Amino acid sequence: MPTIQEAIAFHQLGKAAEAEAAYEEILRERPHHAAALRLFGVLLMNTARYARAAEVLVKAVAANPDDIAAQANLATSLQGAGRYTEALAACDGLLARQPDHAEALLRRADALLALRRFDDAAAAYERYVTVVPNNPSAYISLATALSGAKKIDACLARYAQAIALDPANATAYNNRANELHRLGRFAEAFDDARRAVSARGDFKEAHANVGRSALKLRQFEVARTAFERALSLAPQDGAQHRNLAVTLHYLGDTSTALAHFDEALRLNATDAQSRVGRAICLLSIGETARGLEDFEARKQLPEPLGVLVTPRPELQPGEPIAGRKLLVHAEQGLGDTIQLMRYIPALEAMGANVTLSLTDILHALARTVSPTVTITNRPYEVDFDVHCAMFSLPRVFGDVAVRPPYLHADPVRVAAWRKRIGQSGFRIGVSWHSKKEYESGRSFPLARLQGIAALPGVRLISLQMFDGLDQLHTLPDGMVVEDLGADFDAGHQAFLDTAAVMDSLDLVIACDSAVAHLAGALARPCWLAQVHIADWRWGLRGTTSALYPTLRQFRQPRHEDWESVFAEMEPALRAHLATLA
Question: Which CATH superfamily is domain 411-580 in?
Fold first, then answer.
């Protein structure tokens, strides 16, 4: 039988197989040999056999309850085996005997973090760093716990401490980039992700974070390079194929984008984000049937869209609806809802008893789509036979929707606003800023309309609500944009005044926003200032819109090029005004 010294010698020389055989032989003869049990447990733990290590180390602690090292190793092995509650108990037992035992403090914090007890984990890491103040990894874990506890300022401060201790710590930079990205601080996230890449060139996640932030900053070529590098490091990572595909779509390379979406779905057929991304590509190029089928995957997104939790069935293509109670529920933004209200009269004409569920601020406007539709904001209190999400209507019914106008302004409001606005000049309603959460570069600076404002007889009248109103106070010298006052659409219902004002205007000029959709739904003349790669519903090229016959698109020839848009729009308006003279 080998001696314990011989087993230790094998162990120290890195001869793991020989050491393991020696420990096992010793333990066959002396099953309660405390030193052999502890050292064998360490060997197993060092070769990632945590479950077996825990079995051995339990015996080591039983053989020698005063062996603090065995207790610490037991806690580590239990944690490695995923037995976090037991690891926590082991740490608590050790700390009752040695309150400042660094390894136990750290393992206890790690176990709490794994159990998602974020506040407790943060407190445990704080205790550890008072004992071991110079461990950057501990500050990273502490920051992670603080993030889980939604204490973001403290989280960012702890990442800063980790970086101060180790200025080349790629993990700290990359994790902080994630936090900054979630906060919408994309420029800072971009800088941190690049620092992570500089510190560790083969850090796939950091390259991906560079790309994610570059996308938000609309630096599409930078994003493409970053995602290509991430993909080179992990060719079988479907998420990176998806990221690259999204970027290529923004760069106008739809065919290559589709190939990468296909590959992402080959690698992970259940990836809803890739399927929705592919849907957007397909819809953009007019492959409507395939695109709408893929778009159903939005219901499986991490934050799903179009889902109604009910035992009642969801309407499928080809099902009859005559005589049935159909609940149609809105699912996305105000503009999307306005776009798809066109289906309601068609569904009623097919014999359905329709209830429309949507945000209450649109109820009054929605009532103008049909005098017989029932409108609610409480879908779970409605009696219905079958339901359909709004963006599933085109897939289920095809192109049966009525043509604009399908919404209508209130005549009383129209008369009131017509009197207030007056009949003088060529009246243009303007909306330059989309809602912040849907921004994606769609807003244009109000000052870009300076040339149009200077045309003889032209009056610019603001239709803008909320975001972007500050620009009314920083107009170039001589530029005038009329403000309709504090009572304009000031009630609980959205767009009632906007719709009435549009009836008194000669033209609407808008960015891609709910205002543009409203103008189209009312069949009012609208010029849409469009980004280079537009949202899928507008198509990738052309000046007309299949949705709204009265809408004309002026597209950026390249990303961020609003100057060219208005350089084209101004002479077009001059020509139009000349026809009216």
Answer: Glycogen Phosphorylase B; (3.40.50.2000)
- Token digits of residue 125: 């890491």
Beta pairing partners, 429: 461, 508
3-state SS, residue 530: strand
In this predicted model, what pLDDT tens digit does every residue of 396-433 receive, in sequence order?
999 999 999 999 999 999 999 999 999 999 999 999 99
CB-based contacts of 439, cutoff 8 Å, min separation 6: none
Buried b (16+ CB within 10 A) or exposed e, 195-217: bbbebbeebbbbbbbbbbbbbbe
CA 342, CA 505: separation in Å to the nearest integer?
23
Cα separation, 40 vs 19, in Å, equals 8
Q: Residue 11, Cβ neighbours under 10 Å: how many? A: 20
Residue written as token pair 């950057």: 136
CA distance 471 to 451: 16
Q: Domain spans of the chain?
A: 325-397, 411-580
E strands in 125-277? none
CA 347 remoteness from chain centre? 33
- Report the distance separating Cα 370 and Cα 342, nearest Å: 10
Look-up of token digits 């609610």: 376
Cα(521)–Cα(359) distance, integer angstroms: 18
Q: Packing angle between helix 16-29 and helix 34-46, nearest 10 degrees?
A: 150
Q: What SS3 state is found at 31?
A: coil
Element (H, E) at 551: strand 551-555
pTM, two decimal places: 0.90
Residue 141 CA to residue 143 CA, distance in Å, equals: 5
